[in-house]
Amino acid sequence: MNIAKCLPAVLALLTGAAVWGNSPTLRGKNFQLTASDHRQLFLTTPDGERQLLEFGGLPFGWSDHAAEIASIKQLDDRTLQVDYRITNDPGRQMTGSAVYTVDGDRLKVAYQLDVPRDTEVGGVMYVRIPRDGKLGGLVKSGFWTRHPGGGVPYEAVGPVLRRIDGGELTVWEEINGNALWSGDWNQHLSFRRQDDGGHYTASNSFLVTPKATDGEQAAARLAGRPLAISFAGGQPNHLFRPGEAMTVDYRIANVSDDEIAGRPLVITVHDLDGGIVHSETGAVTLAPGETRQKMLTLPAADEPAIYFVEVASPGEPEIFTRTTLASLDETPLRHPDSSIFGMAATFPIPDREAVYRLLSKLGVRYLRSGDNNECAPYGLVAFFHSHYSPEEWRQLSPADQRQHFADLIDQCDRQRNPVWEFGNENSFKTVEEAAEYVAYLKLIRELIREKQSPLELCSIGFANGFDGIGSLQNVHAAGGWPLLDSIAYHLGRGNMTPDDESLSSTWNYLPSLKELRSLLRQYGDKPVYLTEVYAYTRPNFWWCDTMRRAAENVVLSYALAKAEQVKVVFFYQLMDSIWADIGGVSETDGEYFYGLFDRFGAPKASALSYAATARRLDGAEFVRYVEPADEVRGIEFKTADGAPLLLLWDRAEGGIQSEDSPGYAGLEPWEKHWRQSRKLSLPATGAVTVYDFIGRQRQLTPAGGRIELELSGEPVWVAGATL
Q: What totals of helices (H) and strands (E) does the chain contain, helices first?
């Protein structure tokens, strides 16, 4: 929505006629609500000297109506009622009101609209203007919750708040609509129909706290929780170098109006093997509003490691929070030009430069999109990615179409993008649909030649789960194959390991990749970019990976792609959450759980797995698939130094990780999923190094020219042994 277009309506809402009583003033804790004789409604400091917020009416946004303040009356010593007059309503069929209620340090607002049923109310916003206050950022809170079936704890959605700084006070605006749909003067409000007619209601609130209150504390206060426990400080992304002590601060605050005396506090830290790294039990006593912060120091790790930290206060309700700290191997890659390690999507948290540094630590070489003038100093190569939008382009003249694509090529050349991925997960059911796409490919190819651009033209990122093979067949039938330099493909995957070939479903990894390879052999080979590959971790959901299995499957995804001669694999994505809700919470939407890091930027085990796999495959070349024993699978590589490198795993338990069942409960990341193991004897003439899926290593000494390896479903790297 264009906020600027709403300003005339907003101004009208602020200056509309009003009928006032005797300038009623309601007193809350930390604030006053005052109706001015100048036809305005203010939230002020307790002494009334400073106006923090001004409230107005309701612009409808998606229609030409607006609710202007017509009158205000005081209902009691805690409540004001605002009645609205609806503009552009000649028949006076529309009415509206808002009831403002002071409840301690909280101002609650309940809105009501009665309008004809066909009236569009989805775009309604409310007017609130900071006067002696400054709009700040959003806080998207979540409350850690135990799974009723004993599965993995998760964050449940808490209040979404906007901070409004007002000197020694902070106003927290609780947002019940689209948090991004806002301006300096207004904020979206989500109305819900309450009957078969046109009766709609909505609500929100404003919490006023001392300046020192943080977002987690404000959210807990609004939700009626007595305590807020959160983490602060520590290294960026909670990543430490091997040998460096790992530290993080935790903060516990009493957000209630009563003293909390002797409340239990339990701190537990697990390592990846289920060992207890740190355990602490005590009690805490806090006065109302009191906050304490303490640093938690954990042992240094000499190799890659991840610690799972929980700070909990048992009781009713139980209040706890979780995070991770990790030691990461940052050994520089020696052969970046042969790397297949890419990243499909990143959020600029806290900014692009910090993201580039993090990507470099992980061993990322390629970005699906970006500007090489910015990212090249960090050893990154950015492609260009755009969407395929024929509905939009059909409205353009041929000259405007030509100019549109010429501008995109110029942008690629300015950004020094070597590859343009043209489209994302479109599906062509017929040759005729593909023919329109091919017509655009011809135009782009002509412009690339005219401009003498070095740009490589790559296909739509077709997806195995959305008839990607069928779409490619139709592109070929429409004559598009010679126009493409390379093929982009997405390998969606469900509840199976990447190597599993037992199901005919298209939602698998290796069978879909082999199907694509077969098509390329038939039509003519081209470089393949897997522009979205994932290992997502929605908690307690049978169709996806657990945290531990995601880490294992990152190894297999990259190793199998290397074996199948894929040029680059772009992992989707760096951090949890989605572009429309960066840093947001949704325990039921799987789109929020694709990251190598959580929504705060703390690492999952899969982040370490990604980095470790990049280092194992640095400069390596595929040699062959191997099966050294019944149900033992493997891939043999040759390192840049010519030494053999094996990746081995056992599939005695199969590759189907989970089944759809009532109350499915996932396992904690430190709990091993594979119950069976076997001994495997391999020839070796010298010391053998075995690396697990996050890069931890151990040495095996041959006896009688052989080493004995214990294998389970977890993939392990073996350096120094042969087959």
A: 11, 40
Going through 407-450 in order, the beta strands assigned E by DSSP cover 419-422
Which of these, 435, 232, 226, 208, lies nearest to 317 by C-alpha position? 226
DSSP 8-state code for residue 160: E
Strand 706-711 relative to strand 227-232, pairing = unpaired
Q: DSSP character for 327?
A: E
Task: Take residue 442 and report the two structure tokens written for it.
Answer: 């011809």
Tell which residue, 16, 15, 124, 137, has the closest CA to residue 64.
124
Separation of alpha carbons 503 and 496, rounded Å: 9
Confidence at residue 22, expressed as pLDDT on a 0 to 100 scale? 58
SS3 for 264? strand
> What are φ and ψ of residue 95, in 5° steps?
-135, 160
Q: Which tokens in the block code for residue 84?
A: 């609205």
- CA 576 to CA 594: how far, in whole Å? 6
> Which structure tokens are listed for 212?
């020192």
Dist. CA 371–CA 348, nearest whole Å: 14
Q: What is the pLDDT of residue 54?
A: 95
Cα–Cα distance measured from residue 447 to residue 412, given in angstroms and rounded to the nearest whole number: 13
3-state helix, strand, coil in the chain (%, to 5): 20, 40, 40
- Cβ neighbours of 225 (radius 10 Å): 17
User: Which helix (H) or strand (E) covers residue 278, if one does?
Assistant: strand 276-286
Asked if 227 and 242 touch (Cβ cutoff 8 Å), the reply is no
Report how far apart, in Å, the C-alpha atoms of 610 and of each of 256, 402, 521, 534 are. Answer: 43, 41, 30, 11
Q: For residue 55, give the amino acid letter.
A: F
Residue with tokens 């959020």: 347
What pLDDT shows up at residue 667? 98
How far is 537 from 569, CA to CA, in rounded Å? 19
For residues 412 and 130, what is the distance between their CA atoms, to the nearest angstrom? 42
Query: Do residues 598 and 580 make contact, with C-beta atoms less than 8 angstroms apart?
Result: no
Cβ atoms of residues 487 and 463 within 8 Å? no
Cβ–Cβ under 8 Å, residues 185 and 128? yes
Among residues 534, 614, 613, 615, the alpha carbon closest in space to that of 573 is found at 534
What pLDDT score does 14 carry? 46
Q: Are 91 and 113 in contact (CB under 8 A)?
A: no
User: CA nearest 172: which of 128, 126, 219, 140?
Assistant: 219
Q: What is the pLDDT of residue 10?
A: 45
Partners of residue 628 on adjacent β-strands: none
* Residues belonging to the chain: 723
Beta-bridge mates of residue 457 = 420
3-state secondary structure of 196: coil
**CA 3 – CA 185 distance, rounded (Å):** 9
Backbone angles phi, psi at 374, to 5 degrees: -95, -45
User: What is the full DSSP assignment across 480-491?
Assistant: -GGG-SEEEEEE
Rounded distance, CA 43 to CA 27, Å? 10
**Three-class secondary structure assignment of 541-578:** CCCCCCHHHHHHHHHHHHHHHHHCCCCEEEECCCECCE
Give residue 202's pLDDT. 97
Q: Distance between CA atoms of 467 and 515, rounded to whole angstroms? A: 12
Contact 665, 152 (CB under 8 A): yes
Spatial contact of 290 and 253, defined as CB atoms under 8 Å apart: yes
Distance CA 345, CA 531 (A): 10
CA angle 213–217–222, rounded 5-degree value? 110
Under-70 pLDDT residues of the chain: 1-22, 37-39
Cross-strand bridge partners of residue 276: 270
